[in-house]
Specification:
single chain, about 450 residues, mainly alpha, two-stranded antiparallel ribbon, globular, transmembrane helix, Tripartite tricarboxylate transporter permease
Length: about 450
């Protein structure tokens, strides 16, 4: 009993911390998941938090952020983060109809329903794949190559992103050899963080260049119109199931199940696809838009949960866009969690937690996040959005994360690690901006450099 009590307390405590932190961060528009969730999760790991606490912190963070990211998306007309972008058009059309509060409530209710469904479904699908984990691990270098090619082709960049993988992988290999020659050891965290903040590093370089600064210049501060605060229920708090009609509830549940099984595809692509599949054919315009909001935001929750849990439970290798991106520290955070570059053997949450712990702690973390963020978003969204826009500096938030990333890089390898992070970030930022080679493709490229390239070299040795 005592052996179970300690990890349970850690899980509940860290879930609470993750919920509060990322419920607030979700209110700040443009706070990309990879650049925020990943560094803080990495910090939690390096501080020595036990595995149950790390896992619960991450699960609560993604559940909370994908509830509150709907607030700026629907009330202000600006995406809360990367995954909120597919919701923007539908949210704007509902704003023009004068019902942004309905858009918000449909979105967060869909997210709440999908999150609760996704955890057990993801554990179930992982259990189905687990008997094949040894075979999958044995061919891991080639799986990473195949996954990188697939994710690149399915990305917005298509063939350009696919071809750009070659120079990107070679740059990673060269920088890794450079760092190893000087430090006597390889780097991993610095590469990961550099990729995560690539767009930010690119913007900083552009701002320091006269020609680049011209592309970032604005004639006046951006103006936003905050929608009115309207309540559409009696009593203190509505039930998420009651906010959605029967068709929307069925569509959200169906999208959660399907997107939980298709864990190798891009979360953004799955969000758009599920919205069109379950809402696109509805003829009534108002009902179609509200259904799309529920299904799409539900899919942002289910894809992030499933794409983390299935590779983590069944394989232990980050073989999904989500696992290769924001969830990467759960798989590879040296010296705490590691993946052997030569054998593909793992020492991470896959080895340290049992499947039932993933289910129990994961579901508990998601429920804690929903119990706190759902009432907050339903009742305080208008007030919170106004306060964030008036009082919180977006630049200060970004600067705080940049400082955190610099500290972690210096911890791993001093100035050399920091220079590697800046270099790979600048290259990754350029590829993202010019060729739409998003960070998920770049993370897979890193694993190709670390695992597949040595395997290919071994064939010719």
């Amino acid at each position: 009993m005592e052996a179970l009590l300690e990890p349970t307390l850690w899980a509940l405590g860290m879930a609470l911390i993750g919920t509060v932190v990322f419920a607030l961060i979700g209110l700040v528009s443009g706070t990309d998941e990879t650049a925020t969730i990943a560094p803080l999760t990495l910090l939690v790991i390096l501080l020595g938090v036990p595995p149950a606490g790390v896992f619960a912190f991450f699960m609560a963070s993604i559940a909370a952020k994908h509830i509150t990211h709907a607030i700026p998306t629907t009330l202000l007309g600006i995406p809360g983060d990367t995954m909120a972008a597919p919701l923007l058009r539908d949210a704007q059309m509902l704003r023009e109809l004068g019902v942004p509060h309905i858009a918000l409530r449909k979105a967060i209710s869909g997210g709440a329903v999908a999150a609760v469904i996704a955890v057990p479904m993801a554990v179930l699908f992982a259990w189905v794949l687990t008997p094949f984990s040894d075979a999958i691990s044995a061919v891991a270098p080639w799986l990473f190559l195949a996954a990188a090619l697939l994710i690149a082709v399915l990305s917005k960049g298509r063939w350009a992103a696919l071809v750009a993988l070659i120079p990107f992988v070679l740059i990673v290999v060269g920088l890794q050899n450079f760092a190893t020659g000087i430090l006597g050891k390889g780097l991993s965290i610095s590469f990961f963080l550099g990729i995560a903040i690539g767009p930010l590093i690119l913007d900083l370089f552009l701002a320091s260049s006269p020609a680049g600064r011209a592309t970032l210049k604005r004639d006046a501060p951006r103006a936003f119109e905050l929608a009115a605060d309207v309540r559409t229920w009696k009593g203190r708090m509505p039930n998420p199931v009651g906010v959605l009609d029967r068709g929307q509830l069925g569509g959200t549940a169906g999208a959660a199940v399907i997107s939980s099984a298709t864990f190798v595809f891009s979360p953004v692509a799955m969000t758009v696809l599920m919205g069109e599949m379950f809402g696109g054919r509805i003829k009534n315009g108002y009902r179609r838009l509200t259904t799309m909001m529920a299904v799409k935001n539900g899919t942002t929750e289910s894809t992030y949960i499933a794409e983390t849990l299935i590779p983590l439970i069944a394989i232990g290798l980050p073989l999904s866009p989500m696992a290769a991106g924001p969830a990467n520290p759960l798989f590879n955070a040296p010296p705490v969690f590691t993946i052997d570059a030569e054998t593909g053997e793992t020492n991470n949450l896959h080895n340290l937690l049992d499947p039932w712990q993933f289910l129990v702690f994961g579901l508990a973390a998601v429920l804690i996040a929903l119990i706190i963020t759902y009432p907050f978003a339903m009742t305080q969204a208008h007030r919170a959005a106004a306060w964030i826009m008036k009082k919180v500096s977006h630049e200060a938030i970004i600067g705080a994360f940049a400082g955190l990333i610099a500290v972690i890089c210096l911890y791993e390898g001093g100035v050399i690690a920091l220079l590697v992070a800046i270099t790979i970030g600048l290259v990754g930022g350029l590829l993202n901006k010019l060729f739409h080679m998003h960070t998920g493709v770049q993370f897979m490229g890193y694993y190709v450099a670390a695992l597949t390239v040595p395997a290919i070299a071994g064939l010719f040795a």
